[in-house]
Write a structure and sequence with these properties.
It is a single chain. With 160 residues, this protein is mainly α. The protein contains 6 helices and 3 strands. A 3-stranded parallel beta sheet has the order 1-2-3, with helices on one face. Helix 3 packs parallel to helix 6. The longest helix has 27 residues. It is elongated and about 70 Å long.
């Protein structure tokens, strides 16, 4: 299962937000199994209590956040970064949750993108610096020529 979060501004609790969405997705998958077992009446004992059989499995959930801005992301990228604890050893007992985040300004190689997403992210990255954008427009005209109306509309929205 894949999920996408689009951010034009930094959401300083994005880690918790994505973690909650992922947990709700997993909970929904468990509920689907429970409904199946209630209907089939095919579990007993501990499996009956949880309505989740030992052999049941879940589908991984990957949530990707894309920061549609030329600025840098200065928010937390993991749950542990949000904690203010004196004794860091306590974090050994607290599961961490990492944010899967794309920040255009942090990408070094836009050629690895095989779709129009690469040029869009590259344009956004360059848009924060007028001189760099002008240079990129002059040097990479062929790179921008692949952009269609949807990509141009996206850039207009992202860059106001």
């Amino acid at each position: 299962m894949n999920a996408f979060e689009n951010q034009s501004d930094i959401h300083y609790a994005m880690v918790v937000r994505n973690m909650l969405y992922d947990a709700l997705n997993y909970s929904s998958q468990v509920e689907v199994c429970a409904k199946k077992h209630r209907r089939n009446k095919d579990v007993s004992n501990a499996e009956f209590m949880s309505r989740f059989a030992k052999t049941d499995t879940l589908h991984p959930v990957i949530t990707l956040t894309i920061f549609w801005n030329y600025g840098c992301w200065d928010g937390a990228r993991s749950l542990h970064e949000l904690f203010d604890v004196q004794d860091k050893a306590i974090l050994d007992y607290v599961p961490d949750y990492k944010l899967n985040l794309i920040v255009p300004g942090e990408i070094k190689d836009f050629e690895k993108f095989k779709t129009e997403l690469g040029p869009v992210l590259e344009f956004i990255s360059d848009a924060g610096d007028g001189k760099r954008l002008a240079k990129a427009l002059a040097e990479k005209e062929d790179r921008w020529s692949v952009l269609g109306t949807e990509e141009i509309d996206l850039l207009n929205i992202c860059l106001d």
